Amino acid sequence: MTERLPSRPQLEYYRKQAKSLLKAHRSGDVRAAARIKRHLPRLAEPSETEILASSIRLSDAQLVIAREHGFASWPRLKRAVKAGAAAGAAKTDGGAASSFCFVPGLGIRAANGPGLIAPGPVSVTRDGATLTVTHLLSSGGETVVRVEIDGIPAARLDPEARRGMQPLPVTMSLNDGHGTVHRPHPSMLTGTMQTVSPPPSGPRPRIKTEWTLPALAAEARNVQITMEGPPPVDTWQVSVPIVPIAAAGLSIARSTTSATTLCGVTLRIMAVAADRERTVLQVAGSAAPTDPAVPAPVAIRFVRDLGRDLAGVHGERRRVLVDDRGREYVEEASVPRTIPYGAGLYIEEPVFPPLPSEVRSAELIVPVVTVEEANGEATLEVPLRRAQPDRRMPLDVTLPFGSYPVHVVGAEFVEQHGRIWLSLEMDYGGWHEGRKLARPGQVEVNAHGSQFQFRPDLLRVPLDGEGRDAVRITLKYPTVAIAGPWRLPFEIVTE
User: Fold this and answer.
1) Which residues contact 408 (CB under 8 A, 6 or more apart)?
2) pTM for this prediction
3) Which of the two ends of the chain, N or C, has the fewest CB atoms closer than 10 A to its terminal CB?
4) How does pLDDT run across 255-265, given as a tens digit for each residue?
């Protein structure tokens, strides 16, 4: 699913965006570096300072623009722009508008054009392991394939892959049965999701992968998927039947324009899919446009979640749906999309129970939204010389982090998955004027970007093992929960 383009998009507009990004990078704009870090694979690890010192080509900037709009490559954005322009002209001339449907497990997706879908999961088993193609959907100019492998002994997987420190070295191809073999484009490899669950302590984890490939031809009805990797993955082949989306009996999703802005955050309902089994809303959140003449109290980088409580700070505040008779419906599940999703747009698809047939309108209430603020940095040095593993070191340090005080009350060095980690006991404080600090958006260890784990009262980072007297931890970009509520009314359209 990609961010909706205007009815008549112009390619020249996106070319100018890429040139502007390139110019901003060359001028030392930190905001440009942050965008490049999020979307340019080869510069995903360096710090923003290092990115500003790096050489960036126009093709790099074009890839960033494409990914900000939800496309895996610049050529795909170009094709979508051309297709969107043609569709806009057709709609103006009385043609049909784009359509959408709800696909269980994948969410609301484009259903216009020669869309194809696997009607159900397909599995093959060998040597005690099972490969399952859980989803295959070809629509909106691309094909999404999700594959899971169960039953491979964890001990035979690479330790770094088991820890999630690096992706599994697997490849995938798809033969459409008409002589064409599709493979993921090289620029899309970082968009290939690979996870291993449960934790590596489990004897046989589940390997999950997601691939994005070119769209299939309309006449395709059976495809062969091949996955290859070093032992113990090896080579797998599975044949998957597919049918036109129109024949799959999927729920139709209708576009809507409901939107509201509060505390510098705009939420909008983009589409609604309502049937006898569920009610699904596609909800987007973004930083509201600011007026240059009116200084914003807090600059927001992007929205982090729309009430799913990623940081564990919302408490009992939950999203609810209220129909036109005043009846409330509690959320059953959610389909998160990505963070951020296209130019700072974050999308979630909360799922609610089905609404009674007499309901003609309803209102979504989002009590809390979490954002990442643009300003704020705090640094802490933890001594290493007398530190002992698994022994708590009391601390009493208060750090100003943007406009929020952070209290660090203790530290401990622990071994996890064969590595030494530093655990910091954190007190981020309570709610103040409708805001609550949840955690940092990024963490640096000794001036280098680092992965980190978090809970409401804990921050854990891996150490590099170098001999030092102290470790320097830098917190960047406060991630903050903002109390609402955001209220979004919408109409229920029935056939």
Assistant:
1) 380, 395, 396, 397, 398, 399, 424, 425, 426, 427
2) 0.71
3) C
4) 888 899 998 89
